[in-house]
Amino acid sequence: MLAIEMRLPLKHNSLTARPKRRAVITGLAGQDGSYLAELLLEKGYEVHGIVRRSAIESPGRRMGRISHLLDRVEVHSVPLDSYVDLAEWFGKVKPDECYHLATPSFANLSLNSELATLQESTTQSHCLLAAIKETAPRCRFFFAASGRIFEDATHAPQTEQTPLSPRSTYAVSKVVGLELTRDYRDTYDLHASAGIMYRHASPRRGQQYVTRKITSHAAQVKLGLADRMPLSHLDTRCDWGHARDYAHAMWLMLQQDKPDDYVIATGHVSAVRDFADAAFSYLGMDYRQFVSDDAGPRLSGSGAILAGDAAKARRVLEWSPTYSFEELVNEMVEDDFKLASQEAAQRLSVLGKIPVTPPQATTAPSQSRKPEEQESDQRRAA
Predict the structure, then answer these.
(1) Suppose 337 and one of 40, 192, 219, 243 were both cysteines; which one would form an S-S bond, judging by CB atoms 3.0 to 4.6 Å apart?
(2) Greatest CA separation for the chain
(3) In Å, what is the CA distance from 217 to each residue of 182, 207, 211, 275?
(4) Contact 192, 313 (CB under 8 A)
(5) CA distance linking residue 240 with residue 331, whole number of Å
(6) Dist CA 87 CA 129 (whole Å)
(7) Which CA distances in Å does 191 have to 33, 84, 146, 184, 223?
(8) In the prediction, which pLDDT does 13 show?
């Protein structure tokens, strides 16, 4: 028997003519898992998700990203670090596809818990692959690697052939997962693929990430709920895409006859200050008035720009990003403005005031509003 297995009910249709394809997603409640689940459901899959037990015990707090899907997916709590439990579970469910997204993905946390990060990530990947090999060998497997496996790269952009050069525990754990995926593919003939996923964000990104910090703060400033914020490494340049696009790439990999590894990236780099400029400009403000440059801790790696070359994915998968950098930022700002407006409404209702509405969006992030217009906005929000 499984040591732990808790499930939320799935409504089955007994009149379905042919069985649906069955997929399992580890990390279902995360940003990527939520977008992937939506995609699979749209394509007619039966979707199973593996989440932490704490998520099932407190779904309102832990599963907010998938609250709209809970009546359409089957949610399980199975220990990913237990080969015995996973083997029994996979032998019973027999999924056609497995997407391994679960990870302590906030990379900076590994500075405080390096041993736990490495042990948890590598053990989970190994147990999953071993369980699939023994009990569901026809199940196709996807591993979410990271562009950070090239942290010490000497050139940009990076491709699938770029030498691995991790310089953090998080990156090392991703390298181990990538190599395990390759080993099970080559040694045991599993259909196992890895996506080398460069940075991607969305309105569902966690508040601890710099992109959400920026868009959330911009919305709060616009509504008079915040003032200045410290922001470090403003000149760090990143390759940012939208998580919805990257979830589509994951699915495409498992539809190929031959398993392989692919870089998934936009190929376009922008500095952190560019992200801040775009976010504040969308709301008619100049980020320089509200963001202070904080040096922050020294970053690991050589300082090379982490930018991916997704030519192979474009050629083989026929994949390309659909969101531009500006569209990504604007969508995040709009969503955070709605969230901040709810908070502002609660505060302003006490004073009998009405929260401001967002200004007309600008298409050029670098075009900030005039100082007198900004002062007028701030007076209305006060």
Answers:
(1) 219
(2) 69
(3) 41, 10, 10, 12
(4) no
(5) 14
(6) 10
(7) 20, 22, 20, 9, 50
(8) 41
> Residue written as tokens 């009546």?
71
Measure the CA–CA gap between 146 and 174, rounded to whole angstroms: 6
- In the structure encoding, which two tokens stand for residue 81, read together? 């670090």
The answer to whether residues 36 and 63 touch, using CB atoms and an 8 Å cutoff, is: no
Are 381 and 226 in contact by the 8 Å Cβ rule? The answer is no
Q: Within a 13 Å sphere around the CA of 137, how many CA atoms are in the beta-carbon half?
A: 7
Asked if residues 132 and 141 have their Cβ atoms less than 8 Å apart, the reply is: yes
At 98, list the tokens: 């497995």
Check if the beta carbon of residue 272 is closer than 8 Å to that of residue 240.
Answer: no
What is the dihedral angle through the alpha carbons of 220, 225, 230, 232, rounded to the nearest 10 degrees?
-10
Q: What's the average pLDDT block by block, 10 residues per block, for the chain (382 residues)?
A: 44 49 96 98 97 71 87 94 97 97 64 76 96 98 97 95 94 96 98 98 95 97 92 94 98 98 97 97 97 70 82 98 98 97 79 56 43 42 39
d(CA 134, CA 190): 11
Q: In 10 A of CB 378, how many CB atoms?
A: 15
In angstroms, what CA-CA distances link 306 with 98, 109, 268, 271? 28, 20, 10, 11
Residue ranges of alpha helices (H) inside 153-289 are 169-188, 210-222, 243-253, 272-282
Nearest residue to 236 via CA among 295, 150, 168, 279:
295
Structure tokens at 83: 């080969």
How many other CB atoms sit within 10 Å of the CB of residue 265? 28
Q: What angle do CA 357, 290, 344 make, to 5 degrees?
A: 35
Chain position carrying tokens 């026809």? 138
pTM, entire model: 0.85
* Interstrand relation of 97-100 and 140-146 (parallel, antiparallel or unpaired): parallel
